[in-house]
Amino acid sequence: MDAKEKLESFGRMWYQVFLWCLAGSVIIHCIAACVAFSALRKHTRGRFFPLLIIFIGFLYPITGGVVTSATIAAVYRTANITMPVYVAFLWGAGQSFIGFLLSFSRILATL
What we know:
mainly alpha; two-stranded antiparallel ribbon; elongated
């Protein structure tokens, strides 16, 4: 896919944003799993916790990422705006980064 190519259909926009969200989430969760494995490698049951972290890395994009990516693509399609490929990357990676910030900031624990 050419970097200057523009995405025009809803399906292509949704798919590109979703793939970048999935890739970003998996990368972030794999790094977290490596840190958890190095910290818990001698624990009897804790060494399996990184598997759960990697599972969660796939779970969010498949559930919430699908919905938010479809919403972003629907807004672009309804407004009749073509989406450059790099904007799809920014939306998808941005979703993963916002999820990372929310989980790291402990804002949800104060609710």
